[in-house]
Design goal:
The chain is mostly helical. It has helices at residues 14-23, 29-36, 47-55, 62-69, 74-82, 84-87, 90-105, 109-113, 116-131. 33% of the residues are buried.
Length: 132
Amino acid sequence: MTHSFPIPQNKFDVQAVECALNLGSLPDNETISELFEWTQDENWPVAGPVAELLSSFGNSIAPVLSEILNGADTTWKHALLTGLVLQLEHDTWALVEPAVRRLVEQPTDEEISEHVNGAAQQALAQHLKISG
């Protein structure tokens, strides 16, 4: 599928993200979902720049982000909580806060063993500190 919006072609394709940052336009929801896929492993060179790019899209990322935080992939949740979630503006944070609170207050056994609940606690504390 060809996009008018630059999407990384591999985990090293930071140049595509830099092009996207310079566009200053908002991609469609399908493209946002594709971009999220590049945040699955926080060790990928492209993951941090993609998280920065996604944070610039504001509230439009909240549905996909909440879906991932409520999903089964604990590694992905941890990567997002320690990266993207910490970069969210107040309005976007308010939309994903319920998913983060669930990770803090009612984590699954796997979320506990993968330290997702601790990362969620840190994200919650940071956002409460900023807003309070």
